[in-house]
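A reminder before we start the practical. When you read a complex entry, don't treat the lines as separate problems. The point of joint prediction is that each chain is placed relative to the others, so the output describes one connected object in space. Small molecules and nucleic acid strands, if listed, are placed in the same frame. In the example below there are two entries. Take a minute to note the order of the lines before looking further.
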Amino acid sequence: MDPSLIDWSRAQFALTAMYHWLFVPLTLGLGVIMGIMETIYVVRGDEYWRRLTQFWMKIFGVNFAVGVATGLILEFEFGTNWSNYSWLVGDIFGAPLAIEGILAFFMESTFIAVMYFGWDKVSKRFHLASTWLTTLGATISAWWILVANAWMQYPVGMTFNPDTVRNEMSSLGSFFTVAFSPMAVTKFCHTVMSGWLTGAVVVVGISAWYLVRHREERFARSSMLVGSIFGLVACALVMLTGDTSGVIVGKTQPMKLAAFEGLEDGSEHAPLTLVGDLKVPNMLTILATHQWTGFVPGINDILNGGYKLPDSTLALSAEEKMSHGAIALDALTQYRTAKAEGSTEKVEDLRAKLQENLPYFGYGHIKDKKDLVPPVGLLFWSFRIMVGLGSLFCLVFVLIIVLQYRKKLTRWPLLLNVSTWCIPLVYICSQAGWICAEVGRQPWAIQDLLPVNAAVSALQSSSVRVTFFIFLLIFTLLLVAELGILFRVVKKGPQIEEATPQNT
Amino acid sequence: MNILNTVFRFYLEGFRQMKLGRTLWALILLKLFVIFFVLRLFFFHPAMQGMTTEEKQQHVAQRLENP
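Here is the predicted structure of the whole assembly.
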């Protein structure tokens, strides 16, 4: 397989996924904030909170309009660029995506119409329910997409059928195993809550922009209060789920964790590298195992094997895994030949041999054990950007809450400006998180089962390269259009003070 | 019929009263056109389109068996 085909196919998918992910987190986060603001409106009956909610709904609408359907392009790419992968994943991927499509279409499209058109046409409570249900619909959609992604990182609940060459869910039980695997639950919580964080940062950042310009002051203060409290809660939840995620990654994708840390050789008391030679002793062991003492394997340990796994068995070396993978691939070939020849006895033996070596199936496609190491530098810094920026947002929210309480917020223009600059930073943080998740599992399209070189379709590398640049152009134009509309809406402002003078 | 009429009028009035929404709908329609009539039609041809199920199984099996 032409290496440039794999690289361009990956680049094209990454471009589309990263573009799609510019819109999803704000939909998830702003949706909850709108729900909170509208709840205050319904509880208090104060028209001011209705106006406030309506302004943020405008921002939500622009983001939703530009983001809607961008995920469809990813599904086209599965069929065109990743056809082997699409076939092999079978109903493991199909079922969650089908549920996502139905939910996204029916739930979101029904209630979003009531949310925008129904202000004076339905009761306050029904409208409020519609706002929350629109957000819930978006969140449930995210659940199914993340279930599919989590399965690629931690493939459980499936049976490989050598006759159809597909992974199949044999029972309803296996569906629940896929849908509620620890990886899926943690990934969902961490990702959705990072979306909440994005929503909070955007609300606080735009409000800070108004305060610096002495505009819309009451609106800005109210929005900042809701945004910063919600943001702080989101920060805490993101940290908590990130911590759980670290433990799961340590168990299921140790190479990814070692790459995050640039850890070449593991130890029982592994330190956490902050930057350069600045390390916190024993911290990586504590974070990865939730114990004071516990072996965290480094890149060399994982390649050479021989260390004790959590289940007390010894880890296999890369060569041993590659050998098991070759046996699995050979068993598949022989199985299909025996099946075609009608040799029943052989078929059963070969099926058993295949199943025995199936956990290492993908290693049969690995030519050099060095290919099992993801790009360490990119992961090391992406992880630090994600964590560092997350900590910055946390600090900004705390300062805003304290200064709001002391009524000294406008005396801190630097903090207000930093809050506004946090808007682009939260997107960088979010994208860095996905780089950690996706680049970290390289070379696997499906962890241990299918590497990207076997998952990719046999296309012309040049045509994938050309389409990459065409997509880049289209996505850039759409993004410029979105930002243009957003800036116009923000610049115009909510004009609440003029609209509801009795409340000012 | 009354319910259908109410729903129809709800949407009709909603669309009529849109301001910013008109621009956003124009953007959505343009984007859907680009996705379905440009990208889907000219750039995305499923690699195993036209194959029978057995041919697809064979195709993927061969691809996996020959790393």
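Discuss with your neighbour: The helical segments of chain B are 2-16, 20-43, 53-65. What might explain this?
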